[in-house]
Design goal:
By secondary structure, this protein is of the alpha/beta class. Helices cover about 40% and strands about 15% of the residues.
Length: about 625
Amino acid sequence: MASTTVDLNKSTVFTELESAIHLALETYSNVHRGNGHFSMVTTHLFDRAREIVLEYLGLNKKKYLVIFCTPRRAATLTGQIEMGKYQLLSSQDIGLSLGVTALAVLKKSLPEGVPFQPGGGTARLISKDWVIWARGSDKFEAGTPAIINIIAFAKALRMIQYSGKDTFRNAPAEKLSVAEILYHDELDQYSGSEMLDELRKTLIGRGVSVPTVEGIKPFINLDNSASTPTFTPVWNAFRRSWRQSGELKQEIVQEVKSICSVFLNAPLTEYEIIFTSNTTEAINLAAESFRLELNDKIEPVVISTLLEHSSNDLPWRAIPNGSLIRLSVDADGFIDLIELEKLLISYNQEKKYGKKQIKLVAVSGASNVLGICNDLALISRITHRHGARLLVDGSQLVAHRKVDMEAVGIDYLAFSAHKLYAPFGCGVLVVRKGLLQFEPAEQGLIRSSGEENAGGIAALGKALVLLQRIGMNQIQKDEQALTKHALVGMARIPGLKIHGVKDPESPLFADKLGVIPLEIKKKIAYQVAKELAIEKGIGVRSGCHCAHITVKHILHVGPGLEKFQKLIVTLFPKLSLPGVVRASLGIENTKEEVDRFIQVLGEIANKSQSSSKKEVQQQIKDFVMTSADRVYN
């Protein structure tokens, strides 16, 4: 670590750090595999954070790599690595409660086999029967990491190198009440559609312009299913909370539990609320607890579907003596409920399979590929009628539709704040009381690990308060109108194919979110997404979206081609596989943005081939580097 120090006022350093985080938020998107300018900037910032950690620790980046963890995951991983082969550095060590632990480990000492928490991003390729795990850090960073918190951590390390190790310690607390942080803001007088209009004006990153073929254009984010941007009131809740006393932070945590309880109709007398780092960790916790309650009397069966994100598939494969059955879905993505009931009857009532018993039905509340919301109330009735429990992956659902856990009968619900306009590293597991099987000490570690990120929890609470003031019915109405507009315009483009529900006049459209998977004839998905960014500054995502089984199902990838893909990925790990382009809408999007999207899709579809546009691509690279330098330098 550099020895030069500068005496800076404590408030000044926090102001500088907050300024850097705000800059990162202006170009925020999810890391890796995103094709838009913002995803490229965030990915560069995230990758650079690993290098900064190694620089701070004085470790050789050719020999070491950095895994960003929650405190609990770090403790588990270090238990699998020989002492002396790693170093730990946490945000708590430098006086910040970001919930970030950096594990710097010798590359040759990484644990082999199945990762402790499998899920989104930990696998390179997935089939129904086998998995090719990711390499390096990705294998151990299940789900979307706390990206903004990690960038803040790295920036703080850079600042400490110049201003000393106590830079962020014992900073004077901003004395605010829980109500001031979570409930009051400049939009207090608004509600409904007027509230939504006013909130859009506070979007952080609104109006940021990027280089395109047509010159500098405002960036359009159509990648909300991957992660969402944030708004000034949510950012204010984050930055105000992390400078409070430990006692007030605990009050914030408890109040956000109450906010979650009301928002989801999950009474605290009936449900526990556990804060995690993301949806993937929440589902893994449920699976870990599920394993603890098993005995020799049964061989547990979990029912899932072909629609699942890998985070709601991979954890259930690791159940001892267990098996996983995936329900079939139709072309639009709707589950076969007759099949569900037949399976439950044959396993649980008729006992046709001996000790095998269906204990859990684990389904997505909304597909991250097709955008379909299956009937959770009906699924719940069928599930509970035959003695099983219901777990819902709500990561794609909670920001877009009203969720009523008590009325529907959901036993476990997992979701992430970063898909709810609060990208500060907070996830949630809401679970019916009595279902978690952890010993008290372990449950205490689970709680403290998640609750260390008080700022992320505050941001989630504030986001839910804002959505309540708009009203989930209003959000659904606006998003469906925008989705209809998009589908009608896209239907006019020759050679463009939309998967799933595509007719806004169909009665099925009521169960469709603003998630639109598409292909253009004779065009590779990755190239289409890249062209959208280059031509008009539009950020979407392409590939398999951590839902490989779903994408292979809708693309009709047979066993022969699947085996060939496995061979290709094994031989050429960096090669991109076929997939679909996914555009996904959020509350910040407008009709004008959708019109630009439709226009450029038509232009791409009418081109015989893509041009390289090397000059613009270089401008984009310069934009990425300049944006990152503004944060870290």
